[in-house]
Amino acid sequence: MKKGNLLSGKMSGSTVKKEWFFDRVCGEQIVVYTEDGKLVELEGENEESGAVLGNIYKGKVANVVPGMQAAFISCGMARNCYLPLDEGAARFASYDGSFSSSVRDLKEGDEVLVQVVKAPRGNKGAKVSLDLSIVGKTLIYLPRTDFLGISRKIEDPDIRTALLKEAERQRLPGEGFILRTAAANATRRHLKTECEFLRRIYRSAMETALTAPVGTAVYREADLPFKVLRDSLGDGVNKLYVADKELYERILTIARMRPDLGEKRVVFYTGETSIYKHFGLSEQIRALAQPMIRLENGAYLIFDRTEAMTVIDVNTGKFTGENDLESTVFETNLLAAREIARQVRLRNAGGIVAVDFIDMAEEAHRTAVTEELERALSSDRSNCRVLPMNDLCVTLFTRKRTNREISSMLLQPCRHCGGRGEELSDLYMALLIRSALLDCFAEGYRSAIVELNDELMKSILFGRYFRADVAGIWKDKRIYLIPNKELQQENFTVRGDNSNALTLPDTAQILY
């Protein structure tokens, strides 16, 4: 074992081309990850509201419901947060380790510190926990939980033993640690430094909580770009492309402090067109709004989201194979298993996922497809658990959702059918219009006329999606919006004009 290092060797390099793309547009921070030019991850976070997952709030118990073994906590959000009182060690069940904890008795009016462990969704409030944690690159610090655990993705028994012994030396009575996968490459000095840093963050939050009013976030999890830099980058990344100057400076500062990254890999994108269009990602992103996914052999998948689960149907489509039916079906199901693992990660599907594979007669084939799905899901940063395939060739697996589903960013309930269907969201339409405007101005036009759905126009003006662009890159341009009730949500036109005098309808409105 190397001196001062808890791992005797490092993971071998990969020949896969790994690239990240960062941008700030329409009030969103957007991060895209690709491998060999193929979309693997996409996340977005609203800059104003941000993500609440991981935040610690000073809350007040609104009411306790003994029949549900739950309390509802007022934390200053739109809806009260849900606090289960009988979970015990369930929150840390995905890690190996020892645990001992007791749930305190709560009564209405008590002030408590709670942490969001599941973001609000739809009509449901956030799920919170009394077991607080502060996440670092290699450690998760548990200031009030007597627990010592380690990521199951660290499989070498010698490395696991060494890491757990080191964590035991670092922790104080009553507190705990979870060693993350990145800890396998950490030195003892790094672990100690990060441990002390996380303790300081927690103590600062506690000092804030002493005088803060109820509803205050005494600790906020890092924003999306920083979390990506902390959790995802490092070994094997080729380039980081950043399209926003301010964000570029932030990422460059962090990269200079990262020996596994370095500033040479960070590139400021200065192209006139959208960064997603320039790198051929626009169509891949648009495909995420569609329920159908085509496979390489002509077969396809159908994704159907419900309130309780995600259902995926596998179909042979145009693929007929070259051998017997069983071989054709088996080959399609194997290909589907790999694509399903990619799609649930890309779409950030969470909870229960049910997959209806094409019927296979041979048990060996059913087992092989299940194993292929497990193998493909093993690269997912979220925890997944696959159940055996049943005789109907239906497989269930669970996946922990780490952020909002991408569908909630790209889609919204349809305005015209009472919410029974979906249409492209106002945010996503704003992104598409912005890309078209960039193309228009890249052709040398000083003015642009956008004709679009009237409701979408109202949303763009009210939401001020383009306020940063109008004050920055478009400060010398003129953009006019023309509402059209006959246009569907997804239809719009953009045309450029360099005339000194424009002839426009009375309904036209200049952008901000």
List descriptors.
single chain, alpha+beta, Nucleotidyltransferase, domain 5, OB fold (Dihydrolipoamide Acetyltransferase, E2P), 4 domains, six-stranded mixed β-sheet, 28 strands, 28% helix
Could you characterize the architecture of this molecule?
- The protein has helices at 157-170, 188-211, 224-231, 245-256, 275-278, 282-287, 325-347, 363-377, 406-410, 426-442, 454-463, 467-471; strands spanning 18-25, 28-35, 38-46, 56-65, 70-74, 81-84, 96-100, 111-118, 127-129, 134-135, 139-142, 146-150, 176-179, 217-219, 237-242, 266-268, 292-294, 300-305, 309-315, 351-356, 384-386, 394-399, 411-413, 422-424, 447-452, 478-483, 492-497, 509-510.
- By secondary structure, it is an alpha+beta fold.
- The chain has four domains: 18-47 and 225-283, Nucleotidyltransferase, domain 5, CATH 3.30.420.40; 56-220, OB fold (Dihydrolipoamide Acetyltransferase, E2P) (Beta Barrel); 288-399; 414-510, Hypothetical Protein Ychn, Chain: A, CATH 3.40.1260.20.
- The strands form six sheets. Strands 4, 5, 6, 8, 9 and 14 form a six-stranded antiparallel β-sheet that branches. The chain has a six-stranded mixed β-sheet with strand order 17-18-19-20-22-21, with helices on one face. The chain has a five-stranded mixed β-sheet with strand order 3-2-1-15-16.
- Helix 7 links the parallel strand 19 and strand 20.
- Helix 7 runs parallel beside helix 8.
- The N and C termini lie far apart (63 Å).
- The relative contact order is 0.10.
- Residues 7-13 and 97-102 have low confidence and may be disordered.
